[in-house]
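User: Please fill in residues for this 386-position structure.
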C-alpha cells in the first residue's frame, strides 16, 4: 500500500483579491479525490463558480457516485453562459486509491501531465459525451514516485504577450517539470515551483488565475509525536511504550515530556544553549528520538507554519530554518504521511501562572487545531490522550 500525497498552489489574477480557481481535496481511508475547477472570468464571480463546482464534484465523487451524476448536477447548477456559449466552470478530477488505481476525468481544462520515472508520459484517454459535454476519462495504475499535475489555463497562458507569443505551451511545461522533478520532492513543493515559474513569466502581474494541483504516490512515512505528561504518573512508562511502538520517526515536545521519555528509554536528555531563534527555546537530544523541542510555544509556531503551507507558494522558505518549530514542521509537512499524536492531559503548573498567556495553557485545543490543519494538508492523523 502506498500513501497519496497532494498539494496545490495558486496565483491570483493581477489586482484581484480572490482566485477564480478552486481546488478541493478529499482524503479517505482508501483513496483521495482532488478536483481543480476554473470559474469563468475572474474575481468574486469566478471564485463562487469554481468553489461550487469543486465542492459539489469532490463530495459526490468521494461518496462513490458516478461521474455522469456529478456532471449532470453541475450542468443543472451551473448552466452554460448565454453570451459566450461556454461553461461557467471547467474542471479536472483525479481519484487515486492507496493501491495505485487512478481515475482521471477532464472537462475543458488543459490536459493533465503525468510524470512516470521522472518523465512526462502519455496515458490513455477515452472521449465521452455526458449531458452534452465532451468529457475525457482515463484509467491507469500508478507506481511509487508517479506524479499527476493538474493545471488551470492560467498556467498555459503564462507569458502571453510578454516572454512568449502564445504562452507557456504544454511541451514547455513538461520539460520544466522533468528538469525540476526530484524523487524526494513533495507534491506541494512541485506545485509551488510551477506556480512560482508562472509568476516569473507573468512578470509578477498574472493576466489570469493560475493554479497547479499535484498528486503523488509515495511510501508511507510515520511520525509519532509525544506532547505532555499523562494525568497519572503511573502511566508514564505505558505512554512512552505506546509512543515508541509505531515504526518511523519520533519527536518529543516539552521539557517534562522529554524527561519522562528519557527515563523510559534509560537515556539522558542532552540540553543545548544555542538559540537559533530568540523567540523559541533551543532543541535538545535524546538517543533514539529524532527531535526534542519545547512544548506549547513551538507547537503554536508549527500550527502557523501548517496554515502558511496550505496557502502560500513561499511556504517552503519558512521551513528552511533550523529552530525547533521549523524542524518539527518539516518532519510533519514534508517527510511524513501519517502522524500519531500521544498527548498527556496533565496540567503544567507553569501554565497556571497569571502572567503566562492563557491560550498557551489550552494544550488539547492546540493539538486539535494542529491535527485539523495537518489533515487539510493531506496527512493522516491519529490523536491519543493519556
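Assistant: Residues filled in for all 386 positions:
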Amino acid at each position: 500500500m502506498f500513501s497519496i500525497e497532494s498539494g496545490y498552489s495558486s496565483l491570483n489574477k493581477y489586482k484581484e483579491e480572490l482566485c477564480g480557481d478552486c481546488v478541493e481535496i478529499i482524503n479517505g481511508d482508501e483513496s483521495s479525490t482532488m478536483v481543480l475547477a476554473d470559474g469563468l472570468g475572474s474575481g468574486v464571480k469566478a471564485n463562487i463558480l469554481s468553489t461550487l463546482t469543486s465542492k459539489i464534484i469532490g463530495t459526490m465523487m468521494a461518496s462513490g457516485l458516478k461521474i455522469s451524476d456529478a456532471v449532470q448536477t453541475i450542468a443543472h447548477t451551473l448552466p452554460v453562459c448565454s453570451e459566450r456559449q461556454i461553461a461557467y466552470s471547467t474542471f479536472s478530477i483525479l481519484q487515486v486509491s492507496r493501491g495505485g488505481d487512478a481515475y482521471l476525468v477532464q472537462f475543458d481544462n488543459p490536459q493533465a501531465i503525468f510524470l512516470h520515472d521522472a518523465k512526462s508520459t502519455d496515458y490513455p484517454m477515452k472521449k465521452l459525451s455526458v449531458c452534452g459535454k465532451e468529457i475525457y476519462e482515463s484509467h491507469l495504475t500508478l507506481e511509487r514516485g508517479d506524479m499527476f499535475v493538474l493545471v488551470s489555463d492560467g498556467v498555459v497562458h503564462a507569458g502571453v504577450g510578454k516572454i512568449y507569443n502564445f504562452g507557456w505551451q504544454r511541451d514547455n511545461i513538461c520539460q520544466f517539470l522533468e528538469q525540476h522533478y526530484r524523487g524526494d520532492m513533495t507534491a506541494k513543493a512541485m506545485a509551488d515551483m510551477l506556480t512560482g515559474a508562472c509568476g516569473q513569466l507573468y512578470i509578477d502581474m498574472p493576466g489570469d488565475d493560475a493554479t497547479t494541483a499535484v498528486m503523488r504516490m509515495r511510501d508511507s512515512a510515520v511520525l509519532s509525536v509525544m506532547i505532555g505528561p499523562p494525568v497519572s504518573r503511573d502511566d508514564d512508562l505505558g505512554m512512552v511504550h505506546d509512543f515508541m511502538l509505531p515504526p518511523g520517526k519520533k519527536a518529543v515536545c516539552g521539557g517534562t515530556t522529554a524527561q519522562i521519555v528519557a527515563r523510559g528509554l534509560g537515556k539522558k536528555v542532552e540540553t543545548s544553549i544555542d538559540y537559533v531563534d530568540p523567540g523559541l527555546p533551543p532543541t535538545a537530544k535524546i538517543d533514539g528520538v529524532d527531535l526534542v523541542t519545547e512544548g506549547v510555544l513551538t507547537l503554536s509556531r508549527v500550527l502557523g507554519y501548517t496554515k502558511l503551507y496550505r496557502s502560500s507558494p513561499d511556504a517552503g522558505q519558512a521551513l528552511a530554518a533550523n529552530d525547533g518549530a521549523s524542524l518539527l514542521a518539516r518532519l510533519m509537512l514534508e517527510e511524513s504521511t501519517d502522524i500519531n499524536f500521544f498527548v498527556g492531559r496533565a496540567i503544567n503548573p507553569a501554565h497556571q501562572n497569571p502572567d503566562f498567556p492563557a491560550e498557551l495553557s489550552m494544550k488539547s485545543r492546540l493539538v486539535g487545531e494542529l491535527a485539523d490543519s495537518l489533515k487539510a494538508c493531506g496527512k493522516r492523523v491519529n490523536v491519543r490522550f493519556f
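For context: The first strand starts at residue 3 and ends at 11.
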